[in-house]
Write a structure and sequence with these properties.
Blueprint lengths: L1 E7 L4 E7 L4 E9 L7 E6 L4 E5 L5 H13 L12 E8 L10 E2 L2 H9 L8 H14 L4 E6 L9 H4 L5 H7 L8 H14 L8 E7 L3 E7 L2 E5 L22 H8 L4 H10 L2 H6 L5 H9 L3 H24 L5 E5 H6 L1 H9 L20 E2 L8 E4 L4 H14 L2
Parallel strand pairs: 1-6, 6-8, 9-12, 12-14
Antiparallel strand pairs: 1-2, 2-3, 3-4, 4-5, 7-8, 9-10, 10-11, 13-14
Helix pairs in contact: 1-3, 10-11, 11-13
The protein binds adenosine-5'-diphosphate.
Adenosine-5'-diphosphate binds next to α10 and α12.
């Protein structure tokens, strides 16, 4: 079965075409600047050079048509006709409380997706546009929605409820949802398997440390707590997002500094995090370089980032009354031995000891814990697209 995985952003679209017999990627790519000047498709067939196609693209439908043109092109295509694509898996950011797993998309699901727009006004509309475009162009393919929030729907009520009037949850859905679920689920599954255990016998803390960052407590296969909340702004200090702050700070900014709602929103989402603290960059590579040169604010940003990761790991070990595996993933988690070492230095009280030699590795699955460590510390490159393709195949096979 060939499965196309699509991840639509407001002006971008990422795709991967999988051959699910071997779970291999046939081709992948990115359409950027949809609806803007200079839109283009960058398409890579596995094992070949990238090709760039520049084309005016007004909307996601035109973008998907171009992706299909590239996939079936006699020169840089990998399939002979659109009909070869049996199923399409869409990454959908917010499933609210409606979706606790992946679903085959039909009219009712589309209506439910639309009703969740208020919860993710920036993310869900482009996801919906991508689905509508595929429905028009590939009406015979089974379409599946895979939600960033679904894995966390197992969180108990005492973990997802905020200390706010209960009606706000009941009437307006204000509660913690969590995100990056597909990544946390994939990493937890790989982590258990790498340790030769079944998921239902281990307590895992998965640390997705990228530009967006979150940590999840996975107790015997179920997400029981996660650091992102009502929106992906809560939790860790991120590339440009503040993470947890005193909720009174926005009032102060509005009242004392005369900032508008939009300015505060922009400040907390785009100008905060390690970018805001360091003043250097949102990219950890730049910050690590500046910190190595002696830049004190870059050093502070890294220390503050790692300190909060340590606190969440400690909290989640307590939430699960123990931890067997700590797994690092995503851009920084996969590629920064110094950040992993800095974090693990404070976790010996849990019986988690990193092996400096083994930790000197990037982007590959590995056990980086010392032989004497009671907790396994793992590096697991995430693969959200493969997870989406697997979910899509499973649902399409029963459709
Ligand atoms: P997202 O998907 O949220 O954009 P990624 O998981 O791709 O994030 O992570 C991107 C971040 O990972 C970059 O901003 C960069 O800071 C960090 N990163 C990537 N490679 C390295 C590296 N070699 N060393 C340190 N940090 C890295």
């Amino acid at each position: 079965m060939k499965v196309l995985v699509i991840n639509c952003g407001s002006s971008s679209l990422k795709y991967q075409l999988f051959n699910m017999e071997t779970e291999s990627v046939l081709a992948k790519g990115l359409v950027e600047r949809i609806g803007l000047d200079g839109s283009a498709l960058i398409h890579t067939v596995t094992g070949k050079e990238k090709v760039r196609l520049e084309r005016d693209l007004d909307n996601h439908k035109q973008a998907i048509a171009l992706v299909l043109e590239a996939l079936t092109d006699p020169e840089h295509g990998v399939i002979s006709s659109f009909a070869d694509i049996e199923a399409i898996g869409h990454r959908v950011v917010h499933g609210g409380e409606t979706f606790s797993g992946s679903v085959k998309i039909d009219r009712e699901v589309m209506a439910a997706l639309r009703s969740n727009i208020d919860l993710a006004p920036l993310h869900n509309p482009p996801n919906i546009m991508g689905i509508e475009a595929c429905t028009e162009i590939l009406p015979n393919a089974v379409q599946v929605g895979v939600f960033d929030t679904a894995f966390h729907q197992t969180m108990p009520d005492y973990a997802f409820i905020y200390g706010l009037p209960y009606e706000l949850y009941k009437k307006h859905g204000i509660r913690r949802y969590g995100f990056h679920g597909t990544s946390h689920q994939y990493v937890a599954q790989r982590a258990a398997s790498l340790c030769g255990k079944s998921l239902d016998e281990v307590k895992i803390i998965t640390c997705h440390l990228g530009n967006g960052a979150s940590i999840t407590a996975v107790d015997r296969g179920k997400s029981v707590d996660t650091s992102m909340g009502f929106t992906p702004l809560e939790g860790l200090i991120m590339g440009t997002r503040s993470g947890d702050i005193d909720p009174a700070i926005p009032f102060y900014l509005m009242k004392q500094l005369n900032m508008s709602y939009d300015e505060v929103n922009d400040l907390l989402n785009k100008r905060s995090g390690v970018l805001g603290i360091s003043g250097v960059s949102s990219d950890f590579r730049d910050i690590e370089e500046a910190a190595d040169r002696g830049d004190q604010r870059a050093q502070l940003a890294l220390r503050a980032f790692c300190y909060r990761v340590i606190k969440y790991i400690g909290a989640y070990a307590a939430a699960m009354n123990g931890v067997d595996i700590i797994a690092f993933t995503a851009g920084l988690g996969e590629n920064s031995p110094p950040a992993r070492a800095e974090i693990c230095k404070s976790l010996t009280f849990l019986g988690a000891e990193i092996d400096e030699q083994k930790n000197n590795i990037r982007g590959k699955e590995a056990d980086i814990s010392a032989d004497t460590s009671r907790v396994r510390i793992l590096l697991i490159p995430t693969n959200e697209e493969l997870m989406i393709a697997r979910e899509t195949k499973a649902i399409a096979a029963n459709a």
